[in-house]
TrEMBL record:
Reactions it catalyzes: glycine + O2 + H2O = glyoxylate + H2O2 + NH4(+)
Molecular function in Gene Ontology: glycine oxidase activity
InterPro entries recorded: FAD-dep_OxRdtase, FAD/NAD-bd_sf, Gly_oxidase_ThiO
Name of the molecule in the record: glycine oxidase
Domain FAD dependent oxidoreductase per the UniProt entry, residue ranges: 5-349
UniProt-listed Enzyme Commission number(s): 1.4.3.19
Pathway: Cofactor biosynthesis; thiamine diphosphate biosynthesis
The organism's place on the tree of life at top rank: Bacteria
Organism: Paenibacillus harenae
Enzyme class, UniProt record, top EC level: oxidoreductase
Amino acid sequence: MKQSILVMGGGVIGLSCALELQRRGHRVTVLEINRCGGQASGAAAGMLAPYSENLESPDAFFRFCLQSLRLYPDWQEMVKKVSGRNFEYTNSGSLYIAYHEADLLALEGRLLWQQQFGSSGSILEGDALFRLEPNLSRNVRAALHTPEESHLYAPHYVSALEQACRLTGVEIHDNLGKLSVTEWRNEIAVQSADQRSFSADRLLVCSGAWVQELSDTFGLRIPVYPIRGQICAYEVEEKPVRHMVFSNQGYLVGKENGTLVCGASEDVAGFDTSVTDKGIDRLRKWNKQAFPFLENKIPFHRWAGLRPSTQDGFPLIGSLTGASHVAFAVGHYRNGILLSPATAMLAADCVEGKNPSEFNQAFSPERFGRRG
């Protein structure tokens, strides 16, 4: 049955959910306090790397990330077709590098369980490694090569998502300032800072790092906190880094526009998105150790975004018990770009009341209990 749905939040998760719901025949309105894609979404490096970013075990979060990676080929083609806009989507593969013999055992253990979940990865050393990534420091002992991993250019992707939403009929209101949920138990009403009121049959909360402001409204503990991620970029020629390169210090990824993106220096700074010399210097220190040609290069661009981190590292995705017309899709931390297609599918299923998936219990928005 066709329903009217308010989506609170116009980041990559909110826009992806809105697009999927609109494509399923619903009437969707997106409400955004700033501008669409203006926080973590637009600041992201756009890596689609569940094997490299989830290192310990195949828990529910890893499996969800892997599901989303496998959705991406068809999803990104759909977004391009519907929006009429192109954006970089590159199946570069990744290298997770190690400098010491002792770290090689960890790489081998990681590869063992990842191969059980579809990785065609391998451990590379010596000439085999440097043929694949010629400019890598010779101090690197080995690397875990994962061909399946990809990346995209996040600002263009988010812009295409917004355009796809608009062209399919999603109504978008941005720069609304503070949003307040004034009714939710029996009907949905949301009010903006300028006193405009929006109503619908259902509410999907996708408000990222700001969702904790709704704890009192819904009487829930919502431990989602902003983590500042600082990133820098270099101007380079002839794409000197061929793969996404990860270490325990950060990542480097080359883009088609001639930039090399390095991230991310993370700290707790509330909602402050300023960039610090300390944060960028930490990035520069490790990336020149990985790629010596960066020794004397100065980043031409530095920026920061707020990543919504949960207390247990899992997102909050699902409907509320006793109020199934209210659902959440928040807390994706540094994986919002990667998880946008899988979250869109799962959240849309929750909104439509479809059979629960294997992730509903792990990602329940009520798992931290009620306030008081």
